[in-house]
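Protein modeling request. Please complete all fields; requests missing the sequence field cannot be processed.
Requester role: graduate student
Desired output: 3D structure, token encoding
Chains: 1
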Amino acid sequence: MTSVELTAGDVARWALHAGLPLPDERRPDVAAVANHIHSVIHTLRELDFGETPPAAAYTVEGVAADAAL
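Delivered output (69 residues):
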């Protein structure tokens, strides 16, 4: 799979398409973050989990089912 880096212009165009105009000074930072996220997702897609069941299949014992942090 070939990776294509987003440019500041690409980011501005996609943001405007989504109805989120992006100030000029933010475009390079947003492009850098988007490219980093893309590289992480690309790496995750290459992992071979084999027969590993999804996380929902596991039960944690001895832990209270409390969503409070």
